């Protein structure tokens, strides 16, 4: 069976809307063709794995609802291939959009001190270090397993960063001061009905008390201790949380909201004066 014949078979069984997923599955299984581009250029060639292998992956994805990123243990963020598993959140395109915005804003500044709070897989901090190589980046997470994964990703990308295991509340009293703090904290309301695939991601990286605003409020209330004068704090939040956050920061901080790629305001920038 050729790659093209297998893809057509999968489309017939599971639907054309999943075609991009099939390419990820095939590049994961193939011994010789490791990217989507490789597969596209080799569609007429015979598959170099057993057909039952694709059946196993389809069972995990379509029946057990395990995200393809956890099946293949990889995802792509800012043109980097990162290792991910069930211990870290899968980085989203919205976060990538924010990181691109920040990199563009800071591209002419050198030797900036950067903090990635609630760092998870390390996607944010690693991206900053890759595209702003003269920056000094610290990644902070509460748990050992995400830190281990972010260290692995740093090694894979040959990037030199600092890693700190710390509870969010305790780290605010660290002696270091930063020019830039970025955080994608847990912000999903515990009552929110999660997608079946999202349910497989770590709840501690997703859910927060207080309508999902608990960690966001903690960061906003304490960022002052960590930022240098005129430093900036960026926080990602949910699509429906803007007005609650506006009420919380109004008349207390200098801030602005930033839209994602869908023109939905999903990030807040707070400037220390």
Question: In words, what does this structure look like?
Answer:
This protein is an alpha/beta fold. The chain is 40% helix and 20% strand. It has twelve helices and eleven strands. The strands form three sheets. A seven-stranded mixed beta sheet has the order 5-4-3-6-9-11-10, with helices on one face. β3, α7 and β4 form a beta-alpha-beta unit. α6 (93-106) runs parallel beside α7. The longest helix has 14 residues, at 93-106. 35% of the residues are buried. The mean pLDDT is 95.
- The radius of gyration computed from the alpha-carbon positions, rounded to a whole number of angstroms, is 20 Å
Structural class: alpha/beta
Main sheet strand line-up: 5-4-3-6-9-11-10
Helix/strand order, N-terminal first: HHHHHEEHEHEHEHEEHEHEHEE
Q: Helical element count?
A: 12
Main sheet record: 7 strands, mixed
Strand content: 15-25%
Please count the beta strands (DSSP E, at least 2 residues each). 11
Helix fraction by DSSP (H/I, runs of at least 4): 25-40%
User: Quaternary state, please?
Assistant: single chain
The shape, in one word, is elongated
Overall mean pLDDT: 95
- Spans of at least 5 consecutive residues with low confidence: none
- Gap between N and C termini, in Å? 65 Å
What characteristics describe this protein?
273 residues; alpha/beta; seven-stranded mixed β-sheet; 12 helices
What's this model, at a glance?
The chain is α/β, with parallel strands linked by helices and 273 residues long. Helices cover 40% and strands 20% of the residues.
Secondary structure elements and pairings:
Elements: H1 3-14, H2 19-29, H3 36-40, H4 51-63, H5 68-72, E1 75-77, E2 80-82, H6 93-106, E3 113-117, H7 123-131, E4 136-141, H8 144-157, E5 162-165, H9 168-171, E6 178-183, E7 188-189, H10 203-206, E8 207-208, H11 214-222, E9 227-236, H12 242-249, E10 254-259, E11 265-271
Parallel strand pairs: 3-4, 3-6, 4-5, 6-9, 7-8
Antiparallel strand pairs: 1-2, 9-11, 10-11
Helix pairs in contact: 1-2, 6-7
């Amino acid at each position: 069976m050729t790659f093209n014949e297998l893809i057509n078979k999968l489309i017939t069984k599971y639907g054309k809307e999943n075609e991009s997923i099939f390419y990820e599955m095939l590049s994961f299984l193939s011994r010789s063709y490791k990217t989507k581009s490789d597969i596209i250029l080799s569609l007429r060639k015979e598959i170099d794995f057993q057909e039952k292998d694709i059946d196993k992956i389809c069972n995990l994805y379509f029946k057990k609802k395990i995200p393809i990123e956890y099946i293949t243990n990889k995802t792509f963020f800012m043109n980097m291939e990162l290792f991910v598993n069930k211990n870290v959140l899968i980085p989203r395109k919205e976060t990538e959009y924010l990181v691109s915005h920040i990199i563009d804003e800071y591209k002419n500044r050198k030797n900036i001190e950067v903090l990635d709070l609630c760092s998870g897989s390390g996607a944010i901090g690693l991206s900053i270090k890759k595209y702003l190589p003269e920056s000094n980046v610290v990644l902070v997470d509460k748990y050992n397993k995400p830190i281990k994964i972010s260290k692995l990703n740093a090694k894979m990308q040959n990037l030199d960063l600092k890693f700190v295991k710390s509870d969010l509340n305790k780290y605010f009293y660290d002696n270091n001061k930063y020019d830039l703090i970025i955080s994608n904290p847990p912000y999903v309301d515990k009552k929110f009905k999660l997608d079946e695939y999202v349910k497989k991601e770590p709840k501690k990286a997703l859910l927060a008390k207080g309508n999902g605003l608990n960690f966001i409020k903690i960061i906003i209330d304490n960022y002052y201790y960590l930022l240098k004068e005129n430093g900036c704090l960026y926080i990602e939040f949910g699509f429906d949380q803007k007005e609650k956050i506006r009420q919380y920061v109004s008349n207390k901080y200098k801030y602005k909201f930033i839209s994602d790629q869908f023109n939905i305001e999903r990030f807040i920038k707070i400037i220390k004066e």
